[in-house]
Amino acid sequence: MEQDIRIADMNVGQQVQGFYVLKDIRCKTTTSGSPFISARLMDATGEMEAKIWNYSGPITEEDSCKVMLIRGEVSEYNGTPQFVIQKICLASADDHYDVKELVPSAPLEENEALAEVREILASIDDGEYRRLCQAMLERHLDAFLMIPAAKSVHHAFRSGLLMHTLNMMRAADFLSQLYFEVIDRSLLLAGTFLHDFGKEREMVRSELGLVTDYSAPGKLLGHLYMCAQEVCELAREQGMSEEKTMLLQHLILSHHGKLEFGAAVEPQCAESELLSIIDLMDSRMEIYAETLADTQPGSFSGKNFGLGKAVYRHT
Amino acid sequence: MEQDIRIADMNVGQQVQGFYVLKDIRCKTTTSGSPFISARLMDATGEMEAKIWNYSGPITEEDSCKVMLIRGEVSEYNGTPQFVIQKICLASADDHYDVKELVPSAPLEENEALAEVREILASIDDGEYRRLCQAMLERHLDAFLMIPAAKSVHHAFRSGLLMHTLNMMRAADFLSQLYFEVIDRSLLLAGTFLHDFGKEREMVRSELGLVTDYSAPGKLLGHLYMCAQEVCELAREQGMSEEKTMLLQHLILSHHGKLEFGAAVEPQCAESELLSIIDLMDSRMEIYAETLADTQPGSFSGKNFGLGKAVYRHT
Amino acid sequence: MEQDIRIADMNVGQQVQGFYVLKDIRCKTTTSGSPFISARLMDATGEMEAKIWNYSGPITEEDSCKVMLIRGEVSEYNGTPQFVIQKICLASADDHYDVKELVPSAPLEENEALAEVREILASIDDGEYRRLCQAMLERHLDAFLMIPAAKSVHHAFRSGLLMHTLNMMRAADFLSQLYFEVIDRSLLLAGTFLHDFGKEREMVRSELGLVTDYSAPGKLLGHLYMCAQEVCELAREQGMSEEKTMLLQHLILSHHGKLEFGAAVEPQCAESELLSIIDLMDSRMEIYAETLADTQPGSFSGKNFGLGKAVYRHT
Amino acid sequence: MEQDIRIADMNVGQQVQGFYVLKDIRCKTTTSGSPFISARLMDATGEMEAKIWNYSGPITEEDSCKVMLIRGEVSEYNGTPQFVIQKICLASADDHYDVKELVPSAPLEENEALAEVREILASIDDGEYRRLCQAMLERHLDAFLMIPAAKSVHHAFRSGLLMHTLNMMRAADFLSQLYFEVIDRSLLLAGTFLHDFGKEREMVRSELGLVTDYSAPGKLLGHLYMCAQEVCELAREQGMSEEKTMLLQHLILSHHGKLEFGAAVEPQCAESELLSIIDLMDSRMEIYAETLADTQPGSFSGKNFGLGKAVYRHT
Amino acid sequence: MEQDIRIADMNVGQQVQGFYVLKDIRCKTTTSGSPFISARLMDATGEMEAKIWNYSGPITEEDSCKVMLIRGEVSEYNGTPQFVIQKICLASADDHYDVKELVPSAPLEENEALAEVREILASIDDGEYRRLCQAMLERHLDAFLMIPAAKSVHHAFRSGLLMHTLNMMRAADFLSQLYFEVIDRSLLLAGTFLHDFGKEREMVRSELGLVTDYSAPGKLLGHLYMCAQEVCELAREQGMSEEKTMLLQHLILSHHGKLEFGAAVEPQCAESELLSIIDLMDSRMEIYAETLADTQPGSFSGKNFGLGKAVYRHT
Amino acid sequence: MEQDIRIADMNVGQQVQGFYVLKDIRCKTTTSGSPFISARLMDATGEMEAKIWNYSGPITEEDSCKVMLIRGEVSEYNGTPQFVIQKICLASADDHYDVKELVPSAPLEENEALAEVREILASIDDGEYRRLCQAMLERHLDAFLMIPAAKSVHHAFRSGLLMHTLNMMRAADFLSQLYFEVIDRSLLLAGTFLHDFGKEREMVRSELGLVTDYSAPGKLLGHLYMCAQEVCELAREQGMSEEKTMLLQHLILSHHGKLEFGAAVEPQCAESELLSIIDLMDSRMEIYAETLADTQPGSFSGKNFGLGKAVYRHT
Which one, of F141, F64, F142, F146, lies nearest residue F104 by Cα? Predict the structure, then answer.
């Protein structure tokens, strides 16, 4: 019996015991009438199909995405590995496990990243923009540190939003100097920091920070609208000028770049144009990073859904 | 000298005196150094090119879209009529003229139309939706009665928004019965009534109610966003339920039907789908009405910009 | 043994006997060389996978979509229900069953619906349009009462065309009053009534009225062309004026609204524009009705093929 | 005074007398109240702006596109040549002039071209297709010999349809051999010969064969539909088989290749696919011929409207 | 035991021995731990799923697409035939088999086709174009005779490029006469002959000439670019004029017709326009030939990937 | 008489003498037969319509875009200024004038910019990439310093390519650190430096460095192809590895990002994806800079052709 072996390291035939997440739980019945559970075993390193044969509870579909103490064997079905669970119970408050080992997370240290975000915010010259950003950060601090930036396309892991936002702020900082003639650094940095805060309400999360779905407001209103609206209210509370309030909302509403990509309006000032390009660039680079990690040097990946094409990892 | 003859009735050679609107005023100088004004003479029946030769004020470009007392002669230049102004002064507070004869207006009686709008609103079963609509109406009553529904494409005349909204409410009332299985009448009527209130902030108007331009917030935020945002704030003040507040915003944000037509999100419930179709239908029918009015039976119009095609007026 | 239990009510383990339709019949052989039939069991309430093991006739693939007297057991395979047929024979002329219980039908009473269609036709002021419509109705009466409006997207059930046409005529009646300034009610109602008659030749039907495929003329010529052509011939027989004959054909040829949606020409008069919008509206509303019927309040449907998106059923 | 000098050879300052066509006649008045006519002087070699100063008839706008005996002087206005007419009268029945010198015509000998068309038709193996084509030819012989193939894009000159059809038949003849495995030569040749016969009703022509406009049926029904319909009626009169009648109509209805280019249905058999390609090819090659004729070797033409691009004439 | 029976003729239950190709070899393990091979058995007449149970070598995935001597039985699994291999070894140098019976080939005699290509090349009047073509032919002779024209869409068989090129040259020869006014025959024939030579480097081939994948340069540079570049180098070596060198490259770079179809530039001279149409035509006709071969007369094919639609085989 | 007054500072009525560029020269004749020249007077600050009345040489259309010594008066015609030239002669070799005052130039110091480019090139770690870049720089040094980056859309002034390339290299340098996980800095910098070298052959320039047109190879082959080809040849001469040679060509061929924007292939590795985004970003930012320079704070520009929209200059 091996303890807490990571899913990426499991081999057919091993007996395993440890803490894992069980997601996509579905309760079924075999042709012969025997109840069983079909699910996905998950930790930070990967996923594997899982079965609990002859099982009628107490674990049910409601327990999807929770941490469990599991014992079982790595088997194989139709050429793909399958984990056959022999013993299972929900992890209790007393159990010791590291959430970061159970769900995939951004490759950064949260506190360092947060400190850098705070430092850049503090460097915003315009007091109105700076205060609003700092207030938004404190109001949403927990979510900002934890949520992914998307459900599946890119940065779809714990702290993905933090990673995406910080990278974009670094780029915005540099580019506002390169294009200092047309770019108001304060406006660009504020818009960059704020642009994706609406994602908190757009996605439904489990207690572990896993995104299980998009929410009804997320689909019916969109994260651009929800973010712009909250920023507008806060701006009024803080007495920000009309012009700056309008510009901040415009940056948020237009950051998808084109109407057909979901922008509520298209970018019409230099800062919104540049923000939409930085967002595109950071998303694309992260998709490349995630895709090339699974590709051999000198060969092509499979077709990537987000990019709409296969990509080459050179030697 | 003929008094107050309408522009549609003017003939070359006539001497004319009366109240008209002068718009698009531009102060220029001839090659020989003589100052003159080039402008458009306008009343409810049409427009005509106009000139004031050898003129250096006091009328300036700032006076565009104001009512003036004008005397002059209908002349012709390069085959098109041109009004040569001989005497001009701004209308004063004491002057008597009927604004409806000077700017084009919707073919309806404002008070009757308003009464019908109020009557339909009163028939909304759901109290939360009804109260919000009634509050919005009183808050924006003046603008709702006067503003056009667009700068140029359709309903681009005084009270155009009132006419467009009332026609759509009549259609929504009927169609909510025809499709009663899937349509919540209260929601559809509320969304229909509210959908274009953002146009008030989207357009810049002269004191006569003429649209001179789109405003900066109109272009940078869009009327869908501004309307949804105000409705959301009012709904919260009135304690409307989360679900209904979300649905109303969704109807407003999606009423352009497709992302590429400027919808912030696409319609995703039966009422928003139907609202976007009613809006399309009423706009199209009004464009036909305006276009066919200038077309001979049995012939085609010129290419219409809003429809992207020429249309046929049958016999 | 339960008699004539509806498919929607069947549970695993039940023994069932009754009249059902068997469609998509395919004759196969197991690895061990034993012949069997794979098919779909159908009635008005739904469908279920079906098998006849060890069976070599007399039922063959030619008997697809016919009524049969069937005995068998509701079983399960791979988590989905499967009906195992033990005894089967074609229904004979003497058998008593109600076709409406065996194939899905529109939620209306055919005779009432027909009466309303006739009444609206009788109200068409223009005698030439009215006579032509009435002649088309009598000529195609059987098909008009029975055929679906489509193979799968919407109104894909018995009397679907009748339901679609009647609903559109009701809307056309109302809207021709709302837009009386630009709409010739007689032309709009005639075009609305006639627009989909070409579907009779476009689809291949079984004797039960089930659409099994599109016909060769349906694909190579299209229902718009076939309908316009027949209307043109009938109009000439009846001595209709050239202008009206042209307009009727135009309404039929353009009712898909845009070239890329299959319109032979785009709408170029007010009545054809409005007809194309009414057709779009009625199709969309019916897709919503069919989709939302399978969706829980407060949740989203799966992605609908006809709409190209998931839709929300509000509470 | 020079007699009958061609427009392409006129120089500023020349006195000219002869037969010409006057088109786009518009009766106007100068600012000083003097009546004059503005028009275009035309013959087979080109066009020139023309004026008749101080003229009040009897020539009016109704006489556009007629042959006239004209005397005048080649002048210049704003850097472009302008023909000032001093004397003008309608040509009478007794006048001698050659229509081919007055309107642009296809570079072919009509009788030879017609003979070749007849010869290819006679070589169609299938008697049903052959007879129908021959009957259509005799029925429309006059128009087939004279009309252009379009109003402006390509082959927009006398006998343009004859030239376009003959060239396509030559190509169809060759290609039906190259692709004999999939192409039925009789069907392809019949469809090629017939495909544009609807253009006769689609365009409004002057007595000289000049296209002055598209007709109402041309715009509201389209030439594809009108041609397919007539072919269908004739095929039924002649007792053609259902399959062949359907195929001929399909070739005609689909020859624009794609829905967005105006095809009523898209090509779905090898012959309709090939016909749409031959039509595209012959139109494109003729546009090149017309465009390159006005382009110097080694340089680019201006942007051509039909091709949507400038083209290069190599050395 | 039947010898060398063709795959298209195999029936369930037969014992077979002979030379075949094994492709898509994948080494797997059953749930019970037993190693096996899953692959596709192939010859010129078709393909069949194949298994080697309880097999651990020496054949491995590296041996995909090689010729093997195979003994086994035609079985069935899930209603589709499956070949169970009992004995297998790689064909040796001494074995006698005909490659043409093992891989699908173009329906032509290679030497005759090559002779015709050479003859047309010899007829090119322009010596510079002719010499370059002849040099390219000799340099790439082996590949030109053997490679397919594509991996899957059309002409995806041995000598497919030879067949595609020859057919296009025949068409180009004829059409350069039909459009002699605008087409330089030498340029068109040279461009037609050369246009697809880049496919040799674009595709990865097995020793049997089967295309197993696109190459990295094929995807990252494209066959248009690689071909134009080589032609440019050879043209310079041979001292071809600047203008002709440019034109040849232009024809190659633009032969996909439109940017969105992969043309590096769009056709801008008559010869490149015509070449792109001929290429489209020959590809389409071959897709029809391959599709209709599997379709019954009077019925429709399944949806074809290359055409984006189903096609009709008439009677 | 004022000496060398800049065009941006000229006022109607001034007598002026100095060195200017005369472009778009056209020789014409007035109605009364008098020869004159119509042209555009230009210097680094702007342009103005110009006329030389009663002039028959020696200046002709061939002298367009040359420097001339000009005397004349600033007049006005139809409300726009017009320069009436009274005396004119070509500047001779002895004349003293500063080219930078006569043609618009990038706002940078050429030698400093070149030094920075050289410095970044020297920092490329990979010796193969670095040597190739340095060789290209020396080979094209004169053109690289002087030519614009486009004819009209952006950077359409002297040294525009230098400015565009340097800005992009600065961005590439920073971003290769931000995305160091997926970006090979050497490859990205080399591709960025090289990507637009093909513009030298794409554009036709006057001796002053003004772009007068696109060249025939520029239109028929495109600058992407010409650049990739030259880089490929040089790489082979220098013995660069196959993989790196392929990657460099790929970056150049794909830098327009999408096929429909003129990319010969779409980006398929992280560096080409990023290069296409940097190119887009720098072009857009420069268009904003050029557009906003002519726009008042708090207002919108006119519609910009390159962006396809109007843009807002905030306060």
Answer: F146
Tokens found for residue C227: 């309908």
| Helix or strand (DSSP H, E) at A49 | strand A46-52
Q: Distance (Å, rounded) from C-alpha E50 to C-alpha D98?
A: 79
Task: Return the CA Rg of chain E.
Answer: 23
pLDDT at D35 over 90: no
**Pairs of residues, one from chain B and one from chain C, whose beta carbons lie less than 8 Å apart:** 93
H or E, element range at C81: strand C80-90
Distance CA A56, CA A58 (A): 7
Q: Give the Cα separation of F301 and F291 in Å (integer).
A: 7
SS (HEC) of A189-216: HHHHHHCCCCHHHHEEECCCCCEEEECH
User: DSSP states of chain F as a string?
Assistant: -EES--GGG--TT-EEEEEEEEEEEEEEE-TTS-EEEEEEEEETTEEEEEEETT---S--GGGTTEEEEEEEEEEEETTEEEEEEEEEEE--TT----HHHHS-B-SS-HHHHHHHHHHHHHT-S-HHHHHHHHHHHHHTHHHHHH--S-SSSSS-SBTHHHHHHHHHHHHHHHHHHHTTTT--HHHHHHHHHHTTTTHHHHEEE-TTS-EEEE-HHHHHT-HHHHHHHHHHHHHHHTT--HHHHHHHHHHHHTTT-SGGGT-SS---SHHHHHHHHHHHHHHHHHHHHHHHTTS-TTEEPPPBTTTTB--EE--
Of B217, B225, B268, the CB nearest to A225: B225
Residue B28, chain F, CB below 8 Å: the answer is: yes
Dig out the tokens for A37 from the structure: 């559970």
Q: Write out chain E residues lying below 8 Å of D113, CB-based.
A: none
Average pLDDT, integer, range A97-110: 89
Per-residue pLDDT tens digits for C172-188: 999 999 999 999 999 99
Alpha-carbon dihedral angle through residues D47, D48, D51, D57, given to the nearest 10 degrees: -10
Chains touching chain A, criterion 3+ CB pairs below 8 Å = B, C, E, F
> Using 50, 70 and 90 to split pLDDT, how confident is the model at D31?
low
Containing D23, the helix (H) or strand (E) segment is: strand D15-29
- On whether any CB of chain A is under 8 Å from the CB of B81, the answer is no
Separation in Å, CA E127 to CA A253, E140, E237: 63, 20, 15
Closest partner residue to D288 (CB to CB) among E182, E309, E310 is: E182
Residue F312: strand pairing partners: F300
| Token output for A277 | 């390009």
Cα torsion at A57, A60, A65, A66 (round to 10°)?
Answer: -40
Q: Give the residue ranges of DSSP H helices in D179-296.
A: 185-194, 199-202, 216-220, 223-237, 242-253, 270-292
List the one residue out of D73, D92, D83, D51 whose CA is nearest residue D1: D73
CA distance A250 to chain F (A): 11
Burial status of residue E32 (CB atoms within 10 A of its CB: 0-12, 13-18, 19 or more): exposed
Residues D71-109: pLDDT tens digits?
999 988 766 789 999 999 999 888 888 888 898 889 999
Cα torsion angle, C180, C182, C185, C188, sign: negative
Neighbours of chain F (3+ CB pairs under 8 A): A, B, D, E
**Residues A29, C76 contacting (CB under 8 angstroms):** yes
Using one digit for the tens of pLDDT, what is the confidence trace for F45-63? 888 999 999 898 889 888 8
Q: Is residue A246 within a helix (H) or strand (E), and if so which, with residue range?
A: helix A242-253
Residue E238 DSSP symbol: T
D300 touches chain F (CB under 8 A): yes
State the smallest CA–CA distance between residue A190 and chain B in angstroms.
17
Say how many C-beta atoms besides its own lie within 10 A of residue E119's C-beta: 10
Residue that is written with structure tokens 């180098």 in the block? E233
Contact pairs from chain D to chain F, CB under 8 Å: 15
